[in-house]
Design goal:
By secondary structure, this protein is of the alpha/beta class. It has helices at 7-12, 44-59, 121-131, 140-165, 168-173, and strands at residues 2-3, 21-23, 35-37, 62-67, 75-76, 78-81, 84-90, 99-104, 108-114. The chain has 5 helices and 9 strands, in the order βαββαββββββααα. A 7-stranded mixed sheet has the order 2-3-9-8-4-7-6. Strands 1-5 form a two-stranded parallel ribbon. A hairpin with a 3-residue loop joins strand 8 and strand 9. The longest helix has 26 residues, at 140-165.
């Protein structure tokens, strides 16, 4: 489940794109989440440097990250980032599979919802907003479940609308010419 990182491989990689993040406003009441992160892949070695670039400046040096390995195919023990190393740990049962926990010696701990990389823009926008709600009482998995429910409802509505535009509902409410409404043909 863990992998070692070869420094030559990391130095040959293309630089990461900027991190896609949302945070609760500074000074807001604490909640179960401090914001959301929408990585572009499930490669922690590639994604963590972009994340720590933003967070080191905002919160102080990130020294440790923990994840649930459910959604991460490889969990490296250490990831070199700009000027330091971030230690990565994992907890299979103790940590919400949709959450990333960040630790900084100078500023404490933050819990971020991890939005799957394959999530569409509209859904990711809703999730980022929900995770950054001040005093939010939803867990990361509860937000993901709620979004799945919303997505399924929207898909069903779209299918129903499509069915109606293809003539599905029209037949049930409109009677074709010559259609008999009574036994006597009136």
């Amino acid at each position: 489940m863990t992998a070692t990182i070869d420094r030559t491989i990391i130095s040959e990689r293309e630089p990461s794109s900027p991190a896609r993040l949302s945070f609760t406003p500074a000074g807001s009441p604490p909640g179960l989440l401090d914001g959301a992160w929408w990585p572009r892949s499930r490669d922690l070695s590639r994604e963590l440097p972009a994340l720590t670039d933003v967070l080191d400046a905002r919160w102080g040096r990130i020294t440790r990250v923990t994840v649930n390995p459910t959604h991460w195919p490889v969990v490296p023990r250490k990831v070199p980032v700009n000027g330091h190393t971030v230690h990565v740990g994992w907890f299979a049962e103790e940590q919400d599979p949709n959450k990333l926990i960040l630790h900084s010696y100078t500023a404490g701990r933050w819990d971020l919802l991890v939005i799957p990389p394959e999530t569409g823009v509209a859904a990711a926008t809703r999730l980022m907003s929900a995770a950054a709600t001040p005093g939010g009482l939803h867990t990361a998995s509860a937000l993901m479940t709620s979004e799945d429910t919303t997505r399924h409802a929207q898909e069903e509505l779209h299918e129903e609308e499509e069915w109606e535009t293809d003539g599905g509902a029209a037949w049930a409410t409109e009677k074709p010419a010559g259609f008999l409404t009574s036994a006597r043909g009136r």
